[in-house]
Description:
It is built from 15 helices and twelve strands. The protein has helices at 20-30, 47-59, 70-86, 118-125, 132-146, 156-163, 185-195, 207-223, 237-240, 258-270, 284-292, 303-308, 324-335, 339-353, 358-370; strands at residues 2-7, 34-39, 92-95, 109-114, 150-153, 169-171, 197-201, 229-233, 247-249, 271-276, 297-299, 316-318. Strand 1, helix 1 (20-30) and strand 2 form a beta-alpha-beta unit.
Amino acid sequence: MKIIAYSTGDSNGTEAWSNVPYYLLNALEKCGNEVIRVNILPFNRVRAVRVLINRLLRLFKTGITFERTALYGRIAKRKMLRAAKKHPDADLLFSFDFSNSIADRVKTKTLLFCDWDIKYLIEHIENRTPTEKEQRLIDEQKKVIDGTDYVVTIFPNAYDEMKKEHSNVYYFGMPVNLEEPDFDVKQAADERFEKKRLLFIGKKKYLASALSLTKAVESYNKRAGHKLFIDIIGMDADTTGIKSEYVTHHGYLHKEIPGEWAEYEALLRNAFFFVNTEDKWVGASSVLDTALCGIPCVVNPNDDLLRTFGGNIDFGFMCGENTPEAIERALKEITALSPAEYASLSEKARERVKGFTYGEYVKNIINLISG
């Protein structure tokens, strides 16, 4: 099968949309499919232009970002159509975006793959009413979704809501954005139990959780007889503003770059627990990625996560508040674990997600478009 894949950013690397295009397209290729990768990001080589446009949009209080403008859409669709004309023998147009499609301009089957639509983001994640301008965007996106052949969302709650308005929406679960670890998971569990290093993964939208975790660790370390430490992936010290002897920043690590992958893998090997208590954005991919490496978690009991794991995330501890006090209570629980109890949690984490690989995931996608 020949697939043209459109992504906002370079899908040959892991920075585009939380690694998802990188791993999913690699999995499609491993299944024997030919994948033509197309970066539809406008002004891809001149980031300053996008930054300037977003600043102007904020200055004039438009209430939208560049990605939601008509200019963005025109440029993106022009790139999409150019690729489709260049490869008229393509069997599928695959887009990591619910807003941009050329289904009305081609006869080739089209599939949109993303997390949720704008309506769900505003009403259920941000918990507010759409503005008049946003409602127009919602209406435009609804036409895009209805006009395509297949729409796949990776979150169960978003699927439930989108299914109410669209008949072509599918859900296959959440995939793990990680290859099998190269280290012995059981041996790593024994070693990381002694090191007590907490792992936090997330960009700026997770900053509140990183700040609460830091305060919780500082408070815990003042009271306890031993020390906990935090490794932060995804943000540097300038972004977080955190200056603590217990925190090490690693910035964004590209999994496709050997040196940075080696650092990322070392952090996974040494992580005692993955911690992110943000409730709105979930951090689901990081929960799954770390669990595959046998790392238990401390997370907020988000509905999407609970539904993914059958209502019970039994390979970690739930922290219902993103506050230092609540996190510190969780830290006391995890440090009270015996080596045997920790080993059991580690093994359970890996067992719970080993079926979430992209190899299994793309089988569902192929079956869908072949049916």
